[in-house]
Design goal:
- With 416 residues, the chain is of the alpha/beta class.
- The chain folds into two domains: 281 residues, UDP-N-acetylmuramoyl-L-alanine:D-glutamate ligase (3-Layer(aba) Sandwich); 123 residues, Protein-Tyrosine Phosphatase, Chain A (Alpha-Beta Complex).
- Helix content is 37%, strand content 16%.
- The protein has a seven-stranded mixed β-sheet with strand order 4-3-2-5-1-6-7, with helices on both faces.
- It starts with a helix and ends with a helix.
């Protein structure tokens, strides 16, 4: 092996991955390159069962709930999600624990070496992108760990997403809405067509309730049995949980927000279809998505970065806090997001608005938002300080707008 790979460290691997470019901006939708690299690695993705999850919003939390249910029933699990909040290792979890820095670095070395070899042969046209590389690394790590089942979140779209090389046992599609229109199309019909690309002949599927246009596409593209969602009875909702029963199972979900009722129902239906119980859903942890990280006052982190996510967050604020508790909203986002639509939903619900920006070259400067009465903070730490200095113990401090922002805030508030 080349000396370069022998001395590969975790910081080396992370630097190289970031040097490949932003995973959204440099995306190269298509499967040929990742298939070729995985073949050179022995097709590790074929060595375990897979639940493949696509959709616009709720993918990650639905994956987390399915994985928690599997693990509760004794299944050796893998969980692959994106993006990460703090460290890239968070994307690759085994039995609920992120892989170590050393494992991540070793997997990067193996994928990078295979890629360089294939490039030298002229077998692939370019080094795999950030997302393609990490996807191949994850599949390799899961095979090395001899997991039983992988819960795999699609990165973008579905049809041409790098994860769509798996042979799933079950396909799941969460609510479809507008996001990444530049890559997936500017209508729900086009976007749903990309999401439906994960559906496989003979493989059962679970669909969340959808807009009519998306629903029509999914049913037209369905190639296996559809497992219908059961009706919910005796729903009990609070600001930080929900519980209910159906004629098939009972669910207790510890994730916050009315939208998690649907996500948990989809996850529970998937688990039931796999012949497993739904009890493990109550153990789900999903950081940075309506996550309460402190009390007196409650501090809640939520990476609502697109209109559908902002709509869910607005519904949550309106249902549980507006008119009852003072809301201190910390907001920061990226330039390439639907800023006007998101802020139009969220800013009217804030009793106090603090604007800041993630530490990222793509971040939108808070001055550009031009909100009368808003406080401008230079960074996340200052924004939190300002919010807490002005908040009583009965208030709510809510930080949102970007997962990058949440990723910066969480280490300041949650001890390892």
């Amino acid at each position: 092996m080349d000396v370069y790979f022998a001395i590969m460290t975790y910081p080396d691997s992370v630097r190289y991955l970031y040097a490949l470019g932003n995973e959204i901006k440099t995306v190269k939708l298509g499967l040929d390159r990742v298939r070729t690299v995985l073949a050179a690695l022995g097709n590790p993705q074929d060595r375990y069962s897979v639940v493949h999850v696509a959709g616009t919003n709720g993918k990650g939390s639905t994956c987390a709930m399915i994985e928690a249910g599997l693990r509760h029933d004794g299944v050796r699990t893998g969980l692959y999600t994106s993006p990460h909040l703090v460290e890239p290792t968070e994307r690759v979890r085994m039995n609920g624990v992120a892989v170590s820095a050393e494992m991540f670095a070793d997997a990067f070395g193996a994928v990078h070496e295979a890629s360089e070899m294939l490039l030298a042969e002229g077998t692939i046209d370019m080094h795999p992108t950030y997302f393609e590389t990490v996807t191949a690394m994850a599949f390799l790590l899961f095979a090395q760990a001899d997991i039983d089942m992988l819960v795999c979140e699609v990165g973008m779209g579905g049809r041409l997403d790098a994860t769509n090389v798996v042979k799933p046992e079950l396909c799941v599609i969460t609510p479809i809405d507008y996001d990444h229109e530049l890559y997936l199309g500017n209508t729900l019909t086009k976007i749903a067509g990309e999401k439906a690309g994960i559906l496989k002949p003979g493989v059962p599927a679970v669909f969340a309730p959808q807009h009519a246009e998306a629903d029509a596409v999914l049913h037209a593209e369905l190639q296996g049995p559809l497992i219908a969602l059961p009706e919910i009875h005796d729903l009990e909702e609070g600001p930080f949980h929900c519980r209910y029963r159906t004629d098939r199972f009972e669910v207790e979900c510890p994730l916050a927000g009315p939208h998690q009722v649907v996500n948990s129902l989809v996850a529970a239906t998937a688990l039931h279809a796999l012949g497993l119980s739904t009890a493990g859903i109550s153990n789900t942890v999903w950081p940075g998505r309506l996550e309460r990280v402190a009390r007196d006052p409650d501090i809640i982190l939520d990476g609502a970065h697109n209109p559908a996510g902002a709509k869910a967050l607005a519904e949550y604020i309106t249902t549980y806090f507006k008119g009852r508790r003072k809301v201190h909203l910390i907001y920061g986002t990226m330039r390439d997001k639907a800023v006007d639509e998101v802020t139009g939903l969220l800013f009217p619900l804030a009793d106090r608005l603090i604007l800041t920006a993630p530490d990222n070259a793509r971040a939108l400067h808070p001055d550009a938002l031009q909100q009368p009465g808003a406080v401008i903070a230079a960074n996340v730490a200052e924004a939190l300080r300002i919010a807490l200095e002005g908040a009583s113990k009965d208030d709510v401090v809510l930080l949102t707008g970007s997962l990058y922002l949440v990723g910066e805030a969480r280490p300041l508030l949650v001890k390892p």
